[in-house]
Amino acid sequence: MFEKIRTSVYIANTEFKRWIRSSKLIIVPLLLIAIRNLVAEPLIEASVETGYSLSFFEPFIALTNSGFVLLLMPLCFLVLMADFPHKALIDDLYHIRSSKRVWMSGQLLFAVLADMAFVLFMFLSSIVMVIGHADFKFDYSKGITHYTAIFPDRYGGLIGELVPRNLFNQMTMGESIIMTALFLFAYLLLMVLLLLFFTILGYRKLGVLTDVLLILGGTVTCAAKSEYQWLFPMAHTIPWIHFSEYLRKMKYPLWKSEIYLFGGCLMMIVLCIVFARKYEMINQE
Questions:
Q1: Could you give phi then psi for residue 19, rounded to 5 degrees?
Q2: Virtual torsion, Cα 65, 185, 86, 34, nearest 10 deg
Q3: Which of 12, 20, 150, 252 could make an SS bond with 110 (beta carbons 3.0 to 4.6 A apart)?
Q4: Which long-range contacts (CB under 8 A, 24 or more apart) does 240-243 make?
Q5: Residue 249: which domain range?
Q6: Do 215 and 71 touch, CB atoms closer than 8 A?
Q7: pLDDT digits over 148-161, tens only?
Q8: b/e string for 132-159 if b means 16 or more Cβ within 10 A?
Q9: Could you tell me the pTM of the whole model?
Q10: Is 284 within a domain?
């Protein structure tokens, strides 16, 4: 058992080292520029206009509660993971005498590590973007919560979309950070596991197409505030959508989203392990 665990860790470590050296990482700076323009700069401007400093954690909360940014991040992560699992590393099965299920366990461990690294990087990057305009405080800044009171003519503007009343009226800063991070992690992991599962079955391109359709479908239905939004993982990833604007009343229970996201991930992990023996290098369409 110990040998199998060590082998899985070795495979995950090999995959992770290859991943962080990938030329595809060039897309990450482009994502950061978009986040800077769409999230950090509007929050900094609000801070300057109101005279209240931001919390260092507000940009991360904003980017994980913005529908458009939640379109960009999964698509970016999908590009970074598009060749997962890397075909060349199937040779490890023979060099280290690993079974396909042990190899699959290593791939699953890598998927979790890559997801955690991506979310942590987004979290730290969002903090760096507002240095000089923010403080370490676990509370929403008055520049955000009182923005529309100070500037009533801007009601319904961008600031209200980035950190909406549904969020800061219903959840504490700590709850928001934990919930948004966990939901984002589960959302991205679910996308990668779907890609892995279709690759196992020999339909890698279909896996990519399925992920793209789920991301776009979630974006469109959330923007339209359609009841069908709950069929897609994006709606379950955005905490404020679950609440009404003022009353502490849930429009959609958080526990259902937890089951959808984390239950979906668990189901896909089981399916990947069960079908691991079917994985072949040839006929990947």
A1: -65, -45
A2: 20
A3: 12
A4: 240/65, 240/164, 240/166, 240/167, 240/170, 241/166, 242/166, 243/166, 243/167, 243/169, 243/170, 243/171
A5: 2-278
A6: yes
A7: 777 776 655 667 67
A8: ebbeeeeebbebbeebbeeeeeeeeeeb
A9: 0.90
A10: no
Residues 212-237: b if buried by 16+ CB within 10 A, e if exposed: eebbebbbbbbeeeeeebbebbbbbb
Has residue 285 been placed in a domain? Answer: no
How does 174-191 read in b/e, with b if 16+ C-beta sit within 10 Å? eebbebbbbbbbbbbbbb
Q: Token pair for residue 138?
A: 């676990």
Half-sphere exposure of 37 (CA within 13 A, CB side): 8
Q: Whole-angstrom Cα distance, residue 42 to residue 59?
A: 10
Count of alpha carbons within 13 Å of 119, Cβ hemisphere only? 21
CA dist 209 and 206 (Å) reads: 5
- Reading phi first (left if > 0) and then psi (alpha if -120 to 50, else beta), residue 202 is in left
The answer to whether position 188 is within a domain reads: yes
The one-letter amino acid at 90? I
Residue 283 lies in a domain: no
pLDDT tens by residue, 49-108: 888 888 899 899 888 887 778 888 999 999 998 887 766 555 554 444 557 778 888 889
Quickly list DSSP for 8-36. Answer: HHHHHHHHHHHHHT-GGGGHHHHHHHHHI
